[in-house]
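Researcher: Re-running this chain for the archive, since the previous output was lost when a drive failed. Same request as before.
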Amino acid sequence: MALKPTTCKEAIARWEKNKGESAAEAKVIELQFQWPPIEKMDGALSTLVNCEKLSLSSNMIDKIAGIAGMRNLKILSLGRNYIKSLAGIETVADTLEELWISYNPIDKLKGVGVLKNLRVLYMSNNMVKEWVEFNRLQECSALRDLVFIGNPLCENQPDVDTWRTQASNRLQQITKLDGIPIVRDTE
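Model: Regenerated structure tokens:
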């Protein structure tokens, strides 16, 4: 018999029981590695009004949803899920500073430009193949730290130097790429 997926409400209740705290008051909520895994982000997450860091990594989530009420969210960790696009992220655009979304099948970056305060984007090992998608990151003027290795776009470059040159020329605002500081000529 197949196990029913864990709902966000159940995961939050389990977190409260384990921590002996109210989730609505907590600044950091970790719901990664749920068993059975969470498959849907839902409105229960919007009760986490004080949460600044939410981790839902290593579940089976296929889309970003249910976070509109999270008005203090700064760090969202969604690595190792089944998320295909950034749709739904716009509801936290005003506060989100870090998005950790590596190991997902994301191939398009449509909508990333609304994240005006995004400083850190970890999205290695996704499915981005085209420069036109990568170039959308130019709209994220606060972006400083980008991890993009493991995407077909990066892997299809002749060598790592070509990748770093191309990426840093396209994204003048970043200071760190794939964990390594970018050294720019200041002449």
